[in-house]
Write a structure and sequence with these properties.
single chain, mainly alpha, Growth Hormone, Chain: A, 0% strand, serotonin:sodium:chloride symporter activity, transmembrane, transport, neurotransmitter transport, MFS_Vesicular_Transporter
Length: 524
């Protein structure tokens, strides 16, 4: 074999490591897997806890109480049922039929109010009080990921400034793989909680390092907007596939199956990172980045972060509360609890890819303002649905609007750092991820408690009004001024441009390159 042919794979690998597109592919896949794991648990956890804790407790009590007296007189309310949620019944005494058991359960205890308003034969789950408490517990479990990510993100931002993006990206993969395997084999609420919190650590490494890497390799503002739109498409695709995939696999295969599939995909992503990202290479930023606390004092960055937080808070509150509300009011089977999020996921995928390009033309501030208003209106319409088909419109509008906000705000964060601070992106995308996580931490943790206190419709009204009220603040991002230091640099390089940057196209001069001196001499 000729020596040249032997070096072809190494040449391809070297070319791949220098390719911006392959970096985009790696970030796309990492966000895809992270958000598949984020949403695959949404339809699984409420029904899994109901089956293992509520039905398990009642079925274990039933045999001890059915022997002394006939079931119609002294049996507990749920002694003759194994699972209404699965539309299946079990004969406890060994002599009554399925229909007689259901009728006996319903009529033998006139003094006790029914657990749910629809009749048991309709497929609605029993145990109204258990479901009300489960709102809070499921909300806390879902919020644990975002709360942990909220704490870890600033540290990851500092770490990327010191050692680069390659190693944190690979650390994120390893932790995500461990979390996925733990989800597959966890059988209690405590273990599920630990697995969800561990996912938050891995997600922090992957998202901060991935978005910072994209911002560093796509320095042109227009190209960066397109790249962010594609990367957020991976996030959207993960959300799109996760919930329906989890509900169908759980219904027909078992709880562990969706997580084992995700663990296999995570291994493929790790192999891709080993080939492309050089995780053994330490490449710190040549320029010291702006400190996190300095960025947090920038009002324009705060406005952008607030838009990310409140727009995503709506869907974050829906994740733990909508499936339980559907179980109570629509008597939905397991597979529908995940499919209900399908319109939001599809429209989010369309919105991020469409407005990754359009937002740069129509103005990202305007795109975000319209998006937040539509988020609020869509949330107000969710409680009006009477069945799963009534959720298509509100959820579709919600996903499309959040796609508008995310695809606009992520490039704006990089733009604001270029315009007003040092062009190092680890810290600013740590702030963006913190804002995103605050929505997903506050939303589920408070959403369950609010539903228990005032009901699901009022929760949607509160969050919808907050989004509509916040939308006008996006107007301040229309023409953010440059900092004095940036103006001083510009005055040295190009004396004719001493005003603040007011157009998106002028960002192409950042970061300043070696060609800037030549252009300045030619201009003179």
């Amino acid at each position: 074999m000729p020596p040249a042919a032997e070096h072809v794979p190494w040449r391809w690998l070297a070319a791949g490591r220098a390719s911006r597109r392959l970096v985009l592919v790696v970030v796309f896949v990492a966000l895809l897997l992270d958000n598949m794991l984020l949403t695959v648990v949404v339809p699984i956890v409420p029904t899994f806890l109901y089956t293992t804790e509520y039905e398990g407790a009642n079925s274990s009590v039933a045999p001890a109480r059915t022997e002394p007296a006939p079931p119609a007189l002294k049996a507990p309310p749920f002694s003759s049922m194994f699972s209404y949620f699965d539309n299946t019944t079990v004969t406890v005494s060994g002599s009554t039929s399925t229909m007689e058991q259901a009728n006996g359960t319903e009529s033998s205890h006139p003094s006790q109010p029914p657990a749910s308003s629809p009749p048991p034969l309709s497929g609605c789950p029993e145990g109204e009080e258990f479901l009300a408490k489960e709102n809070v517990r499921v909300g806390l479990l879902f919020a644990s990921k975002a709360l942990v990510q909220l704490v870890v993100n600033p540290s990851v931002g500092l770490l990327t400034n010191r050692i680069g993006y390659h190693i944190p990206m690979f650390i994120g993969f390893a932790i995500m793989f461990l979390s996925t395997v733990m989800f597959a084999f966890s059988g209690t609420y405590t273990l599920l909680f630990i697995a969800r919190a561990l996912q938050g650590v891995g997600s922090s490494f992957s998202s901060v390092a991935g978005l910072g890497m994209l911002a560093s390799v796509y320095t042109d503002d227009f190209e960066r907007g397109n790249a962010m739109g594609i990367a957020l498409g991976g996030l959207a695709l993960g959300v799109l596939i996760g919930a329906p995939f989890g509900s169908v696999m759980y219904e027909f295969v078992g709880k562990s199956s969706p997580f084992l599939v995700l663990a296999f995909l995570a291994l493929l992503d790790g192999a891709l990172q080993l080939c492309i990202l050089q995780p053994s290479k330490i490449c710190p930023e040549s320029t010291k980045g702006t400190p996190v606390f300095t960025l947090l004092r920038d009002p324009y960055i705060l406005v952008a972060a607030g838009a990310l937080c409140f727009s995503n808070m709506g869907v974050a509150m829906l994740e733990p509360t909508l499936p339980i509300w559907m179980m109570q009011t629509m008597c939905s089977p397991k597979w529908q609890l995940g499919v209900a999020f399908l319109p939001a996921s599809i429209s989010y995928l369309i919105g991020t890819n469409l407005f990754g390009i359009l937002a740069n033309k129509m103005g990202r501030w305007l795109c975000s303002l319209i998006g937040m208003a539509v988020v609020g209106i869509s949330l107000l319409c969710v409680p009006l649905a009477k069945n799963i088909y009534g959720l298509i419109g509100p959820n579709g509008g919600l996903g499309f609007a959040i796609g508008m906000v995310d695809s606009s705000m992520m490039p704006i964060m990089g733009y604001l750092v270029d315009l007003r601070h040092t062009s190092v992106y680890g810290n600013v995308y740590a702030i963006a991820d913190v804002a995103f996580c605050m929505g997903f931490a506050i939303g589920p943790s408070t959403g369950g408690a609010i539903v228990r206190a005032v009901g699901f419709p009022w929760l949607m009204i509160i969050v919808g009004v907050i989004n509509i009220a916040y939308a006008p603040l996006c107007w301040y991002l229309r023409n953010p001024p440059a900092k004095e230091e940036k103006i001083a640099i510009l005055s040295q390089e190009c004396p004719m441009q001493t005003k603040s940057y007011t157009a998106q196209k002028t960002l192409r001069d950042f970061p300043l390159t070696d060609d800037s001196d030549v252009e300045a001499e030619n201009a003179e």
